[in-house]
Design brief:
221 residues, 10-stranded mixed beta sheet, alpha/beta
Length: 221
């Protein structure tokens, strides 16, 4: 396991879900960190809904180009063969079912795979962005988030209380504590972080968890 912050560990674990040849969209926040942990030798094309295919790792200071940004307005690098296009074509790729995997942040996830990740009532938001299209059009959706809110309240719940991004769209949740699969029978706990226990994960989860063949969470090399 690499050392690093809890958010980096989430990104490292999600990188293990990548497969050769995948087209992958990285949402704002923790998901963008996955670009730094793509396994060596694997051919992955990263998509950004603001109009780019071929995102590379975060650039060093000497590599920064203010004209290259992701959907979160962060400076990014490009890979050989990168391409650029308008938002119309970018969303046609999403809505056409051409994205193998979307990795998104989450505020809440329900036990049936509903996702709330775009607004908190009463807060000022610029808009819903591309999340609603991504959860509807991607072949698989993995949510990357901290297991609890800053006040310790659970973010995995029987049902979401925040406005929904999509209904029944999440296939896997990866947090700083655990890996949880969303199945037809409910939430299945499959992995726990090295510094936690099944009991702690249960205690900090608001929804009912089924306990599978639980193993220690592994991270990308």
């Amino acid at each position: 396991m690499k050392s690093g912050s809890k958010k980096e560990r989430i990104a490292q674990r999600i990188a293990r879900e990548l497969r050769d040849g995948f087209y992958v969209n990285l949402g704002i926040g923790i998901p963008t960190m996955v670009a730094d942990y793509i396994p060596e030798g694997m051919d992955i094309t990263l998509h950004s809904e603001n109009g780019m295919l071929g995102i590379g790792p975060y650039p060093t200071e000497s590599e920064m180009n203010a004209d290259l940004i992701n959907a979160g307005k962060e400076t990014i690098s490009e890979t050989p063969g990168s391409s650029y296009f308008g938002s119309d074509l970018s969303f046609a790729m999403v809505r056409g079912g051409h994205i193998d995997l979307s990795i998104l942040g989450g505020m809440q996830v329900s036990e049936s795979g509903d996702l709330a990740n775009w607004m908190v009532p009463g807060s000022v938001v610029k808009g819903m962005g591309g999340a609603m299209d991504l959860v509807a059009g991607s072949r698989r959706v993995v949510v990357a988030m901290m297991h609890t809110s800053k006040d310790g309240s659970p973010k995995i719940l029987p049902s979401c209380t925040l406005p929904l991004t999509g209904v029944g769209v999440v296939t896997m949740i990866v947090t700083d504590l655990a890996v949880i699969e969303v199945t037809k029978k409910g939430l299945l706990l499959t992995e726990v972080a090295p510094d936690t226990t099944v009991d702690e994960v249960r205690e900090k989860t608001g929804a009912t968890l089924r306990i599978g063949d639980v193993r220690e969470m592994l991270f990308a090399n």
